[in-house]
Amino acid sequence: MPHADRWTIVSPLRPRFRDTDAMGHINNAVYVTYLEVARQDYWRAFKQDDNYRVVPFILAHVTINFRSEALVNETLELCIRCSHVSTRSFGFDYVIREAKTQRLVVEAHTVQVFYDYAKKSSMPCPDDMRARLEAFEGRPLAREVRS
């Protein structure tokens, strides 16, 4: 997972008590929800709209690397950026870190597939989506998934 100082969206998150497990730290399964929160923040900024009924993609793959524990009394930062856009999918890279110390908690990557909900099938990347994502990211995006 690449490290970089530039994240497109950085959002604070206060964990809830219910996010913890018997050991007193944030449960590993909760991090998938935190990634979803980051995608929601990204989409809201990208579209400048809260209408999630028109999201043209579905989640296809999640990879999470746990680097350190997080506790309920810590403020976390959810960092997200688009990693690539292919013909039918695109990726997001994430870092979750503790806000005060910048301690790395999680590195993650997801792949989303462009999806036609009416036809219930994947679809090609909409014509303007790559250009809009590259403009939003402020950089060119690779066309292939990295190995």
Question: How would you describe the overall organization of this protein?
Answer:
The chain is α+β, with helices and mostly antiparallel strands and 147 residues long. It has a single domain, classed as Thiol Ester Dehydrase, Chain A (Roll). 18% of the residues lie in helices and 34% in strands. It contains two helices and six strands. It has helices at 30-47, 129-137; strands at residues 9-13, 57-66, 76-85, 89-98, 104-116, 121-122. Strands 1, 2, 3, 4, 5 and 6 form a six-stranded antiparallel β-sheet that branches. The longest helix is centred in the first third of the chain and has 18 residues, at 30-47. The radius of gyration is 16 Å and the shape is globular. The chain starts with 8 loop residues before the first strand and ends in a 10-residue tail after the last helix. The mean pLDDT is 92.
Short description:
The chain is of the alpha+beta class. It has helices at residues 30-47, 129-137, and strands at residues 9-13, 57-66, 76-85, 89-98, 104-116, 121-122.
Total domain modules: 1
> What level of helicity do the residues show?
10-25%
CATH classification, class level:
Alpha Beta
Characterize the biggest β-sheet: 6 strands, antiparallel
What structural category characterises the helix and strand content? alpha+beta
Global outline: globular
